[in-house]
Design goal:
Chain lengths: 283, 216
């Protein structure tokens, strides 16, 4: 097409300025532009006279002009073709009038289709991320807890001697006789490790607990040798804190599960919607 | 100014006699009846341009329908002036699209459309000599074949300038190129048509008899 255009310029000379317009080509014949201008009758009187003079002496140009004039006349007299039908518009929303109400599916979801795709991808990535993080943290916590429990003497009740038991519960070492008496009077004290892990504050409130009497008995026994030293801080506070944290984290994990399930449901809904939109678009 | 601001609706009695521009103003106001009068007025020319450019009745009908629908939808963008070139700009754009599409997916539409062409030619001029009618049909077929051999640019230029008789200036506005380029394309297209018709003996006979034919 570019070649044709270049050819057009070469032969018709119509893109030249009037000063440069040449009605004759290099061989001395009239150009296509000159012949067509002549047929259109758009030449000036001087140019028209010049061309007519050339046509009287050049048979080749005369024949070309004759053929071109007949062709143009033929094209201009082409009969019109009758269309088989009318192209009137029967019913169409008026320009500027309100378009017909679309369904929610067509009006909201179909236009939001690209956003839906992004949303589905984002939710999917979020789920993958949450699941991966969840798995890693869960595994780490379990490992830490196992390590902590293994390192805590209080977590091994079967290996705790009766002499070490008060230390385990944060009480100062008492007289062996009183200790044995107290221990014999209440073996249940070691039955529940969680009780052994109670802190000093828990011990202060032990009067109101179910085992209050037993603890009092032990305390009385301990009071006998001398004045009770002020309660020392628990020798293993980190272990108890770790337990509490683990419990809180387990609550947090269960919340994550709920979020995960919700997101899964959302993902499912989005996928179903996506399929629906795709089907609608295909239709 | 008031003319543009008032609700553009035309009385049914005046719709048929209103000029194109008045009808277009009414169409801009949502008057479908006024627009349909425009459609009826121009549908034959629009269809013929589509048919001559695309060379297929079915494609021309689709293109003409699309054109009128697009023009209706784009009525608001009509800034005034003459309606016909504005409408033919939509026509040529639609035809360019169709030609590009058919270039990507070529079909054998022309060979099967000659029969359609024979049927399509108007028989309303009953007084015309039957021999002349046959000649006209043959001429039309040969011309259409020659037109189809032109490039899209040359074909559109020839059809707009010679068949629809638009001035070079109007054609340049329709196609969206300088008038010198339109002239160049039209002249080159005519020259090719002459060569194409001159090389075929049948066409040469028709060309030889063209003087008699066109004078009738």
């Amino acid at each position: 097409m570019n070649e044709e255009r270049a050819n057009d310029r070469d032969t018709t000379g119509m893109n030249d300025t009037p000063e440069r317009q040449q009605w004759f080509d290099s061989a001395g014949h009239l150009t296509t532009g000159a012949l067509n201008e002549s047929i259109d009758g758009s030449l000036s009187a001087f140019d028209d006279e010049l061309l007519r003079h050339h046509l009287t002496v050049c048979a080749e140009c005369g024949a070309r002009r004759e053929g071109l004039a007949r062709t143009v006349a033929l094209v201009r007299s082409m009969p019109e073709v009758e269309p088989h039908r009318s192209f009137e518009i029967a019913s169409n929303p008026l320009p500027g009038s309100k378009p017909p109400a679309k369904s929610w599916f067509q009006g909201v979801l179909a236009p939001a289709f690209p956003a839906l795709r992004v949303a589905v991808a984002a939710v999917f990535l979020l789920l993958v991320g949450v699941s991966a993080t969840d798995l890693i943290t869960q595994r780490d916590d379990q490992g830490d807890q196992v390590a902590m429990v293994a390192d805590t003497p209080a977590a091994r009740p079967e290996s705790v001697s009766l002499e070490e038991a008060p230390q385990a519960i944060g009480a100062p070492p008492a007289a062996p006789a009183a200790n044995i008496e107290a221990a014999e009077s209440d073996e249940a004290m070691f039955a529940e490790p969680s009780e052994a892990l109670g802190d000093a504050a828990a011990r202060d409130d032990s009067d109101t607990s179910e085992t209050g009497e037993k603890v009092d008995a032990g305390a009385d026994a301990m009071d006998q040798p001398g004045p009770t030293p002020p309660p020392e801080p628990s020798p293993t506070p980190d272990a108890s804190v770790a337990r509490v944290d683990a419990a809180e984290e387990s609550d947090g994990l269960s919340n994550w599960r709920i979020v995960e399930i919700s997101l899964l449901l959302l993902l499912f809904w989005l996928v179903v919607t996506w399929i629906g939109v795709e089907r609608m678009r295909k239709r | 100014m008031l003319r543009f601001r008032r609700p553009a609706t035309t009385e049914p009695s005046t719709v048929q006699t209103a000029d194109d521009e008045t009808l277009m103003l009414s169409a801009q106001g949502g008057d479908l009846d006024a627009y349909n009068v425009l459609v009826i007025r121009h549908q034959r020319a629009v269809f013929n341009v589509c048919y001559r450019i695309l060379g297929s009745t079915a494609e021309a009908e689709d293109a003409a329908q699309d054109t009128f629908l697009k023009a209706w939808q784009a009525a608001k963008s009509f800034k005034g002036g003459v309606v016909r070139p504005w409408m033919f700009r939509i026509v040529t754009n639609r035809c360019y699209d169709a030609l590009r599409s058919s270039a990507r997916h070529p079909t054998d539409s022309l060979s099967g459309d000659e029969d359609h062409l024979d049927q399509d030619l108007p028989d309303s001029d009953e007084l015309v000599n039957p021999l002349t009618q046959v000649e006209r049909r043959e001429t039309s077929v040969l011309l259409q074949e020659a037109l189809d051999r032109l490039s899209a640019d040359q074909r559109i230029a020839v059809i707009l300038c010679d068949v629809q008789r638009f001035s070079y200036e109007e054609a340049s506005q329709i196609i969206g190129v300088p008038s010198g380029t339109v002239k160049s394309r039209a002249f080159r297209g005519r020259e090719r048509l002459r060569q194409s018709l001159g090389s075929d003996p049948e066409s040469r006979e028709l060309l030889a008899g063209e003087g008699r034919f066109s004078n009738e």
